[in-house]
Amino acid sequence: MPLHSARRAWPTVAVLALSAALAGCATTRPTQPPAATSAAPAPKLRAGLDPRGVDPFPSTYRRRSAPAVAILNANILTGTGAEIRGGGLVMAEGRIVAVGQVTPPPGATVIDAKGGWLTPGVIDAHSHLGVFPSPGVSGHADGNENIDPVTAQVWAEHSVWPQDPAFDRARAGGVTSLMVLPGSANLFGGRSVALKNVPAATVQAMKFPGAPYSLKMACGENPKGRYGSRGRAPATRMGNVAGMRRMWIDAADYGRRWDAYARKSAKGDAGDPPKRDLNLDTLRGALDGEIAAQIHCYRADEMAVMVDVAREFGFHVKAFHHAVEAYKIRELLAANDICVATWAGRWGFKMEANDGIDATAGLLTRAGVCVAIHSDDASLIQRLNVESAVALSAARQAGLEISDAEAVKWFTANPARIMGVLDQTGTLEPGKMADVVLWSDNPFSIYAVARKVFIDGALSHDEDDPAGPHRSDFELGQGGDR
Predict the structure, then answer these.
(1) Looking at residues 218-223, what average pLDDT do you find?
(2) pTM for the full model?
(3) Domains in the chain, please, with CATH?
(4) pLDDT exceeds 70 at position 446
(5) 154-198: per-residue pLDDT in tens?
(6) What are the pLDDT digits (tens) for 456-476?
(7) Quick one: average pLDDT of 14-41?
(8) pLDDT level of residue 2 (50, 70, 90 thresholds)
């Protein structure tokens, strides 16, 4: 069993017109070093020597061609805090065109929701699909490079198996995008990858175009238990923190050497560049704000220590993951603009997870913290809406007034924010990717089924399709014909 988890197993809104930015590309990471400020040209490095060079593993994702679609007579939770009763949505060319009281454009496919519910596509900000794929056998366990407490050099995308049948199951649960992270055996586990949940033969064809990378870190029991049991450091929580600080010092020094080289190259006298270090490339990216820090951490006291470490070295914690005690430090998290990706009822399965409560998401939301309900699990990813309903019910029982329109952000807008793609998806707004779910019922109902799932406007899962859902090549190979 991998260490990343203890389990394996509504007023009317006027029509919003499509903006001129509709055809704009996804926001992208900087792919080139800053231009030289001197007239002397900077030396061109040979391929593979420049840590700020072109992304070596670019996305090849292409949206499927699809006709314009108008969905009418729906109740809509937009992910922006608005609820629209009896409204509609129009999508075309992969983007949302209008939301509210809409008129189908000529030639559009018209779907009568018959009072069903529309939400943005479900997004999971903490998944291990593809790196711990199904079936869960040792030959598939590729999520933890647990040979050293520092493995920031590994990239999750190099382990993702696109044939994992769990991608299809997740799509049937409404999941349109997800962030796949390395496991939590190590202090620095490596880079994440953001995916569009589409069938593909390669991981590059699933990569969310322009999504930033994240760095997976872990504090607490996992790293100290993994290495302490081998008679190696870290063996304690203070050893965890010391190991992290040592690496941040190395990363800062590495960055200074590359910055010095860049200054000299601008003057035409740079000489040979520093030798690249894949570990430090990633850590330097986090220090420079290009790579987001995502930290597996359960206890409130340890999260507070991580906030101090981030302040010491000048990086920002994008989100604490699992974080069952986050409710104890919600003001600290809000003050530092740190999100939380958590569950509702999953706590108590080990000592550091012992003090969780079901109302955590509600308490954090009321304190102004960005909260996402995540899975960390190939089964739970299929029903993140129901896990969110559990959290919502607990919050209301605790006397917290949280609307459905606000709570839907827990599995749509907020995980998109954690992944760094909120400008592209996560809400139903004109110009955004047409990642949309039509539910049979209110998505916070245990009876709700994702009837139709659209990814970039293309119908990607349809409960009414007599041919049944997509099956991965692995399942077709094992099971023969449909």
Answers:
(1) 97
(2) 0.90
(3) 20-30+50-479 (3.20.20.140)
(4) yes
(5) 999 999 999 999 999 999 999 999 999 999 999 999 999 999 999
(6) 999 999 999 999 999 999 998
(7) 38
(8) very low
The label of the residue with tokens 């609307």 reads 403
